[in-house]
Amino acid sequence: QVQLVESGGGSVQPGGSLRLSCAISGSIFNFKTMSWYRQAPGKQRDLVATTPRYGSNIYTDSVKGRFTISRDVAKNTVSLQMNSLKPEDTAVYYCYGVDSGGNDVWGQGTQVTVSS
Question: Is residue 26 predicted with pLDDT exceeding 80?
Answer without folding.
Answer: no
